[in-house]
Amino acid sequence: MKKLGFLYSNLKGNIPTGIGTLQSLKLLSLGFNKLNGSNVLSIFNISTLEILDLRNAGLTGTIPNEIGHLHNLKKFGIEQNALADSIPLTIFNISSLQVLSIWDNKLEGPLPREVGNLTMLNLLDLGINNLTGMIPDEIGNLQELLDLQLDSNNFSGSIPISNISTLASISLTDNHISGYLDYNNFTASIPSTLWNLKDILKKNLSSNFFNGSLALEVGNLQAAMLPDLSWDQISERPGNGFCKFSSFANKFSNYDKSENLKVLHLGDNNIGGVIPSSISNSSNLKELRLYDNKFSGPIPNSLGNLRQLKLLKLFNNCLSSLDSSIFTSLANCRSLIHIDFSYNPLNGVLPDSICNLSTSLELFYLQHSEMRGNIPLGIENLSNLNTLFLLENNLNGSLPRTFCNLLNLQVLVLHQNRLIRPLPYCLCQLLELGWIDFSYNQLSGPIPNCIGSVTSLRNIYLNSNRLTDIPMSLWSLKDLLDFDLSNNSLVGSLPLDFGNLNAITAIDLSRNCLSGSIPTTVGDLLELLHLSLAYNELQGSIPESLGKMISLESANLSNNILSVKEKQNASDYTFAIDSFIDGTCLNHCVHVEET
Q1: Which residues, including other chains, have CB under 8 Å from residue 2's CB and lie 6 or more apart?
Q2: Which pLDDT band, with edges at 50, 70 and 90, does 24 fall under?
């Protein structure tokens, strides 16, 4: 017998000792079972084994030294068990090994220098363990290595991989490395030799604190993706073979193969200076992410030459655009799906040219960008738009009725502008709308009566306006999760239908002119966590049902004319009723009126 497989066979208990007598066996698979491993040593007598699969087999204890007896072994998978202690040195005597996968165990101690003996290795995966110390220089001897996974350990020091020209995938996330990759504390510059690894498709260098800058040799990367450097902190300290980011443009003007670039991600760094217009030489660029940096000056209009661009994220910099001309240029990018210029001092009028952007545009973020003027009528041309953020600007005038033709719109956020007049009734045509936020504007008049027909609504924020009436249809939105209509001029009473909002978790109707009593159906709001009816003209007794709402975390009923009659037992209330002090609500509070 040469092959024996029990993969996913629901085996339990000991490994049968008889397996050790199969001296011609080349493949043994016992993975994804519930073995206890007490007879595992018998397996290591089968010197002919080439493939040993013990993945997720329920094994505990340690990897025995006898593993070294399997001198013909090519593939060894023992991941997702509960093996502890150190990696036995004997495993590194198996020079035929091509795959060594021991991830997700409880191994500890250093990675031995003898790892350099495994010169045939294609995959080395030791992730999700408790390995410590420095990654040994001998790992650079693995000239056949394609995939290196050392993530989620406690490695420190630098990474000696620059001599491995075959690497296609590297993951060193969640360590304490002074070299590259996620959630590490990098203290060294990125070595220029790294960029000579021409076959690497993607390197994740995110969430680190780089001390240094990218090497000029970055242009040697000829695969589809440049490194993902998100969350890095790259300073501008020059070093041997490195360039300051003040000469950031050199990376493009000197890069004669920039047409190969498809993704450039340098977000979350401290890169300054201007964005070079020569970036448009990367004619096949599809994603450009330069957000959360210190770029300044104008956004280069040459970005409009990137005809294949789909995603452009430049938010949180110090960028500008003369006469908002960037939008005219970007009209040439007919594949654009996502634009984010938020938190830049664009300081201009929102131009009609945004209406000429690609009809494929789905997400458009222009938050806190010092834009002013009216929302252009032609915005209806962005027919596939599903998310629009224009909040925290100085936009004025009314919401154009052409908005109502954006039938794919799901998220509409325009809070903290200077919009006036009533909301157009035709907004009820947007049957995909789930989130609407017009808070902190100057809207007036009633909320449209038809709002109840937009059953997709989950979040409504219309607080701090001059709205006057709540339509009855609002109480029919049974899937509504959160609404805030505070600080308006709302009048009238709360109907019994108040209790129809089955999914609601937060209601804020404070600082209005609501009168009448709190409907007893408030107790039907079983998912309600936060309720504020403060600063109204509500009167009468507080419904006992309110006091029995187990889910309720905060209830502010202060500054009304409410009472708890003495015949009502105050202990029935799950919130405190004695915290009303000088008109201020502390914790859960109501005013108690003795009768």
Answers
A1: 24, 25, 26, 27
A2: confident
